[in-house]
Amino acid sequence: MSFAELLASGDGSFVVPESWHQGRTAYGGFSSALTLAQAMHVGGDLPPLRSAQIAMMAPIFGEVQVSARVMREGRNATWIAAEITGDKGVGTAANFVFMRPVESSVAVDDVPPPTDLIAVDEARPFDNPNAPAFLRNHFDVRFARPRRDGRSADVCWWVRPKSSEGLDPALALLLTADGLPPAVMPMLSAYVPVSTMHWQVNLLTAAPQTQDGWWLLRSSADFARQGCSSQRMQLWNSDGEPVLAGTQSIALFG
Q1: What is the pLDDT of residue 190?
Q2: Which of 25, 117, 138, 191 is geometrically suited to a Cys-Cys bond with 59, CB 3.0 to 4.6 A?
């Protein structure tokens, strides 16, 4: 079931398909996009999405309910809060800011893509039968940088949703933007359970678009100690234009 088909199947109440799972819970981009879809539904005629804060507090699976409410509607921006709840209460809580462009004298653009980037047409496909269900079923993936000696807390892939038809561009983008494994995963010597705790996202354009559905995703860990990892996340379109920037806190259970 594609994400668009899932949205059409319910009105605030959904059953999470196992094809969207990442371990024992729904993939983080799935739950984030589900709250955004409900926020856009209750918000009506909204300005473009510009920022999101998403807390992933408990596993999301089985039958869930999604709710949203407008917190504040100002002259230029609207804040909307949304939640996903299941049998054990709230699993995901999100806050979204929708804001129309305003005149500004400030212009800063210092988010270049990697210098050793492999073009998407030349990149080697990612084909791992042990990859999470959501990745195998719903995304095309290619390695975006050359293989390196040793291990580093830096992951960079080309990622494309297999189906984004019928989705708002911002919704499809948020669905895709969490597609990488945590940046520290290459440094782990054995399987260690990991879990996202909090995700902060800033959209760098009011109209995200790319060619043939491909987005360039990169996650780089800044710090990891005592079971917590902090990472930076960046996303560019196929032309190398910055589209999204964020941070994420990851829990490491081992």
Answers
A1: 66
A2: 25
pLDDT value at position 151?
A: 79
pLDDT of residue 99: 97
Per the rule left: phi > 0, alpha: psi between -120 and 50, beta: everything else, 29 is alpha
| C-alpha R_g of the chain | 18
Taking the C-alpha atoms of residue 221 and residue 154, their distance in angstroms, rounded to an integer, is 7
In the chain, which stretches have pLDDT less than 70?
190
Q: How far from each other are the two terminal CA atoms of the chain, in whole angstroms?
A: 34
For residue 60, the model assigns a pLDDT of 95
How crowded is the C-beta side of 160, counted as CA atoms within 13 Å?
20
Residue 206 CB neighbours (<10 A): 14
Tally of residues, the chain: 254
Closest CA to 206 of 46, 14, 7, 62: 46
Q: Residue 142 pairs with which residues in a beta bridge?
A: 125, 158
Quote the CA–CA distance of 59 and 73 in Å, as a whole number: 31
Residue 10 pLDDT: 84
CATH number of the domain located at residue range(s) 3-101+110-252 in this protein: 2.40.160.210
Cα separation of 85 and 67, whole Å? 8
Task: Name the residue type at position 215.
Answer: W
Shortest CA distance to 28 belongs to which of 191, 198, 216? Answer: 198
Give the 3-state secondary structure of residue 50. Answer: strand
* 13 CB-contact burial (10 Å; exposed 0-12 / middle 13-18 / buried 19+): exposed
